[in-house]
Write a structure and sequence with these properties.
The structure is a single chain. The protein contains three helices and four strands; from the N terminus they run βααβββα. It is of the alpha+beta class. It has a single domain (11-99), classed as Gcn5-related N-acetyltransferase (GNAT) (Aminopeptidase), CATH 3.40.630. Strands 1-2-3-4 form a four-stranded antiparallel β-sheet, with helices on both faces. A hairpin with a 4-residue loop joins β2 and β3. The chain starts with 14 loop residues before the first strand and ends with a helix. 28% of the residues are buried.
């Protein structure tokens, strides 16, 4: 298997798009697998509701490989949260998300 492939599909097949409220169940699953103190559903809902924020999803077609949440405060952008499903790590998913900001 090439270094840029998971057991599922090639990294090139991943679509980076805006994160939607409908994605939150999968986001929470990735969050819980990624962090010892994961964000709550309410925290994600709050960030998605901010009109000045940017939230992106790495969509595999069958689910999410990862996501990021970025917020703007005055003239400064903050990368608030980024996570990649453990099955998709070390393949460039987070890099693709950050490049799309």
């Amino acid at each position: 298997m090439a270094a840029t492939e998971s057991p599922f599909i090639s990294i090139d097949a991943i679509e980076v798009r805006r994160l939607a409220y409908a994605d939150l169940p999968r986001v929470l699953a990735i969050e819980r697998r990624s962090f010892p103190a994961p964000w709550s559903l309410a925290m994600f809902v709050l960030e998605l509701s901010k009109p000045s924020g940017i939230s992106l999803a790495a969509d595999t077609g069958d689910g999410l490989a990862g996501y990021l949440v970025c917020s703007r405060y005055a003239d400064v952008w903050h990368l608030m949260n980024v996570a990649v499903d453990p099955d998709w790590r070390r393949l460039g998913v987070a890099n693709r998300l950050v490049e799309m900001l």
